[in-house]
């Protein structure tokens, strides 16, 4: 353990004699261009959005300071509140399903699988493919009369569904696309966790006569818990922000049945050009994403801690 | 024992094939749709392999829908946004890693969490005010929002793991900071730069939301162009599927060629654009 600590690159650097000759500040010139770019295309928009959210401002119209009235408007805007509910339902499903399927897939890919490289390459294709292109093909597959999905259902004796054309099935249908696309990312993250598990616990479990289910429950699951948490955090952020698939397939419809915060934000800002109110939505949306991420980072630290406890 | 092992690996192979089948069947169906005439696409039960192929779906996409121009637009936007990001982000990743300024990485992380749309309102107004709408410049700048964080994030991780001894030896030999970076750190970091390049290209190429707001009639990138086809040609599936395949084919080919780098990059940084 002590040797590992000594070998950390930072330790070596502290001890190196050249440290004095190269103060950390001497690396500033490398960072300055990036600071300028990040400042102007990332940080400036953040600040400007907050400023705009305090104004009544429609593109082409006059700008008037409005204090927090845009935020007050949000609280009583039923379309906004509904979009928040849609976002949470969508996100919950689009985190849980890829998490379960991705973990199962990682278990398969972690075993002695013939043709592993080729199969893994095929498996990750959905998440690298262009979302809009994918969405168009799914739209055709969802078609109630001509779509291939209803044909496939009929083969196993299930009647035709309206998929994205029915308000009550539209969100699950979109989640199906999202799950198809992003299960591979969960698989890759969990696979990284499985690769790091030493073989000793399994060997002693085998001696003790533990079943496969017990080995998974008491060895694998606790060991990969931190990786599952990373997958949950990343999936949550991405699902909250999901835009391309929903916009391309339903545009938030039918009616507003699949309108998430992101979709509503788009309509307000770029269809109604109400940039003041749109900015207020953007700020609240950003706050929700950050708050959920921080909450889960906090939980992640807790899981790590309990892992240590469980292992000791 | 050996026969049991063969059975075991056959079982695993079966499980593996089941896992990849949704992906394979989807892309096969996409290919099938793109090669069929309208009659065959409207047939029930659906036809997977048609008797005659509608190659005109592909030629039509380029002739009637100006996909040549949009392909060029995509190439310019992705090329410029990735090139600039590497130019800025690789030295920045080096600087941040050597200064061990982990707090700087938090800005990159928050940038990744921010919904792409929330950058667009201020950028849209800014580009309008500057009179840049109608050119490709707004899209190139907006795509930096995706590519710069990806490159910085991956390069920080990469430079943190490269050994310092060589750089220190070069300093003792009298090299200045820039030379050390250019002739010592950069060559070692080539695999990391490749990973950053590939992921930046893919996520920039795939980006839709910036184009849908910032692109005009002449400045559409491919994802926007294919989406616009949907509104005008809702009923002709063949050309639509052909266009969708053309848009995503470069990325799929890159995925197959550079699978190793993509997996390394995604699991290290777990980044995604937009």
Automatic annotation (TrEMBL), chain A:
The keyword Membrane applies. Pfam families: BPD_transp_1. Keywords: Membrane, Transmembrane, Transmembrane helix, Transport. InterPro entries: MetI-like, MetI-like_sf, Sugar_ABC_transporter. Residues 84-296 form the ABC transmembrane type-1 domain. The chain crosses the membrane at residues 27-48, 88-109, 121-141, 179-197, 218-237, 275-297. It is a multi-pass membrane protein. GO terms for biological process: transmembrane transport. It comes from the Bacteria. Its main location: membrane. One of its GO terms (cellular component) is plasma membrane. It is found in: Cell membrane. CDD domains: TM_PBP2. Belongs to the binding-protein-dependent transport system permease family. This is ABC transporter permease. It comes from Microvirga vignae.
Automatic annotation (TrEMBL), chain B:
Belongs to the binding-protein-dependent transport system permease family. It comes from Microvirga vignae. Keywords: Cell membrane, Membrane, Transmembrane, Transmembrane helix, Transport. The chain crosses the membrane at residues 12-31, 67-92, 104-130, 136-159, 235-257. It is a multi-pass membrane protein. It holds the Pfam family BPD_transp_1. GO terms for biological process: transmembrane transport. PANTHER family: INNER MEMBRANE ABC TRANSPORTER PERMEASE PROTEIN YCJP, MALTOSE TRANSPORT SYSTEM PERMEASE-RELATED. InterPro entries: BP-dep_ABC_trans_perm, MetI-like, MetI-like_sf. Residues 71-258 form the ABC transmembrane type-1 domain. It is found in: Cell membrane. CDD domains: TM_PBP2. The lineage of its organism: Bacteria, Pseudomonadati, Pseudomonadota, Alphaproteobacteria, Hyphomicrobiales. One of its GO terms (cellular component) is plasma membrane. SUPFAM superfamilies: MetI-like. This is Sugar ABC transporter permease.
């Amino acid at each position: 353990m002590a040797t590992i600590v000594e070998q950390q690159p930072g330790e070596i650097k502290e001890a190196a004699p050249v440290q004095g000759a190269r103060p950390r500040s001497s690396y500033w010139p490398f960072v300055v261009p990036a600071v300028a770019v990040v400042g102007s295309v990332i940080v400036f928009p953040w600040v400007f959005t907050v400023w705009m959210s305090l104004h009544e401002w429609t593109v082409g119209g006059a700008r008037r300071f409005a204090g927090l009235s845009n935020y007050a408007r949000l609280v009583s805007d039923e379309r906004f509140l509904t979009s928040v509910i849609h976002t949470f339902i969508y996100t919950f499903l689009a985190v849980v399903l890829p998490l379960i399927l991705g973990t199962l897939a990682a278990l398969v890919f972690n075993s002695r699988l013939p043709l592993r490289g080729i199969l893994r390459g095929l498996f990750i294709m959905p998440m690298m493919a262009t979302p809009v292109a994918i969405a168009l093909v799914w739209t055709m597959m969802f078609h109630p009369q001509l779509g291939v999905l209803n044909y496939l259902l009929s083969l196993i004796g299930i009647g035709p569904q309206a998929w994205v054309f029915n308000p009550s099935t539209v969100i699950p249908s979109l989640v199906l696309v999202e799950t198809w696309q992003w299960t591979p990312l969960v698989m890759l993250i969990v696979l990284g966790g499985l690769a790091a598990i030493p073989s000793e616990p399994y060997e002693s479990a085998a001696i003790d006569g533990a079943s496969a289910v017990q080995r998974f429950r008491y060895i694998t699951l606790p060991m990969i818990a931190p990786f599952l948490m990373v997958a949950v955090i990343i999936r949550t952020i991405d699902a909250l922000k999901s835009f391309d698939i929903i916009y391309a397939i339903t545009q938030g419809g039918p009616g507003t049945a699949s309108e998430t915060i992101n979709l509503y934000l788009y309509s307000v800002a770029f269809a109604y050009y109400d940039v003041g109110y749109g900015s207020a939505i953007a700020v609240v949306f950003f706050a929700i994403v950050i708050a959920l991420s921080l909450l889960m980072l906090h939980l992640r630290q807790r899981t790590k801690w309990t892992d240590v406890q469980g292992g000791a | 024992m050996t026969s049991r092992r063969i059975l075991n690996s056959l079982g695993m192979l079966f499980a593996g094939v089941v896992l990849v089948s949704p992906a394979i069947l989807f892309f096969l169906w996409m290919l099938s749709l793109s090669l069929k005439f309208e009659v065959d696409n409207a047939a029930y039960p659906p036809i997977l392999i048609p008797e005659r192929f509608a190659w005109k779906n592909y030629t039509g996409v380029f002739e009637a829908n100006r996909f040549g121009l949009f392909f060029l637009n995509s190439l310019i936007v992705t090329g410029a946004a990735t090139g600039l990001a590497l130019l800025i982000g690789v030295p920045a990743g080096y600087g941040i890693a050597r200064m061990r300024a982990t707090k700087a990485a938090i800005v990159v992380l928050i940038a990744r969490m921010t919904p792409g749309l929330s950058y667009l309102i201020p950028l849209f107004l800014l580009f309008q005010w500057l009179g840049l709408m109608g050119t490709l410049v707004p899209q190139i700048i907006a795509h930096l929002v995706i590519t710069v964080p990806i490159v910085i994030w991956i390069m920080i991780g990469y430079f943190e793991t490269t050994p310092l001894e060589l750089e220190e030896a070069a300093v003792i030999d009298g090299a200045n900071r820039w030379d050390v970076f250019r002739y010592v750190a950069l060559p070692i970091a080539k695999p990391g730069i490749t990973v950053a390049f590939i992921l930046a290209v893919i996520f920039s190429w795939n980006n839709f939301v910036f184009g849908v707001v910032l692109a005009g009639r002449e400045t559409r990138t491919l994802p926007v162009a294919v989406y616009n086809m949907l509104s005008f040609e809702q009923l002709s599936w063949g050309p639509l599927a052909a266009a969708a395949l053309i848009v995503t084919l470069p990325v799929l080919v890159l995925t197959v060629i550079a699978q190793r780098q993509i997996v390394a990059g995604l699991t290290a940084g777990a980044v995604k654009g937009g």
